[in-house]
Design a protein that fits this description.
The chain is built from 8 helices and 10 strands. It is of the alpha/beta class. The chain has a 6-stranded mixed sheet with strand order 6-7-8-3-9-10, sandwiched between helices.
């Protein structure tokens, strides 16, 4: 698959974060008065210095942990816990080691009470979509890191959530696998029109993938800047990485981040 231009979509926010703060036990303040909107049908990346609270913010939006102050709304509804409108792709894959690829991908549908025949048919379709047809009856230990991450993506897609929340999903695979997965994901998401909120430490990855980049300050985090890369994604994914706009945006973000590293 190759990266293709996603259709233009109005900047209607599907996720609204307002005045969000999070302080952990012991007084560690991770987030301080964070407000941001995530537009529908686009890929937005959270980028910032290590330990700035990117994953904390993502988990609050997912409903996995509570905030200390502020609120999150998805499609206008207050987030009070996990919900079927959001699917989480974990950094460490979070697959059930005793279950086959088919069972892992179908698991979210099983929790929703979908019958076995229907959920396995849906799971098989998404397994094929991420390039793992023929591996339905393998177990996670029989797969490479990149293949396990594809299983995690297929599981998130299978529940057909409006929003995909992805926490550094490519951080544990090698550079070649990472690049291929980036290209494949762009192609897959362009056909789906899904909203994605993506956490990464990589400036290059953020610029390559994103419609919008939210730059966070050091902890306790605030939104420092919102950047929209002026990059047209065509049929040649490698051309993006050579484009002057890509290189200029990478450098601009690096200069912005440097002030938090001193």
């Amino acid at each position: 698959m190759t990266a293709r231009a996603r259709p233009a979509i109005a900047d209607t926010p599907i996720i609204e974060v307002k005045n969000l703060s999070k302080t952990y036990e012991g007084g560690v303040e991770a987030l301080n008065d964070v407000s941001l909107d995530v537009p529908q049908g686009k890929l937005t990346t959270l980028l910032g210095p290590s330990g700035c609270g990117k994953t904390t913010l993502l988990k609050i939006i997912a409903g996995l942990i509570p905030s200390t102050k502020g609120e999150v709304r998805v499609s206008g509804r207050m987030v009070t816990g996990p919900g079927p409108d959001r699917a989480f792709v974990f950094q460490d894959f979070a697959l059930m080691p005793w279950a086959t690829v088919l069972r892992n991908v179908a698991f979210g549908l099983e929790l929703r009470g979908v019958g076995r025949e229907e959920r396995e048919a849906v799971a098989r379709r998404h397994i094929a979509e991420v390039g793992l047809a023929g591996f339905e009856h393998r177990h996670p230990h029989e797969l490479s890191g990149g293949m396990r991450q594809r299983v995690g993506l297929a599981r998130a897609l299978a529940v057909d959530a409006d929003v995909l929340l992805m926490d550094e999903p490519f951080s544990s695979v090698d550079e070649q696998t990472r690049r291929k997965f980036q290209e494949d994901m762009l192609s897959l998401l362009s056909a789906r029109g899904k909203t994605v909120l993506f956490v990464t430490h990589s400036i290059e990855e953020a610029v390559y993938l994103s419609d919008r980049i939210v730059l966070l300050s050091r902890r306790p985090s605030r939104v420092a800047e919102v950047i929209e890369p002026d990059i047209r994604r065509g049929d040649d994914p490698e051309a993006i990485r050579r484009h002057p706009a890509y290189l200029d945006t990478v450098e601009t973000i690096w200069q912005g981040l440097k002030r938090y590293l001193d």
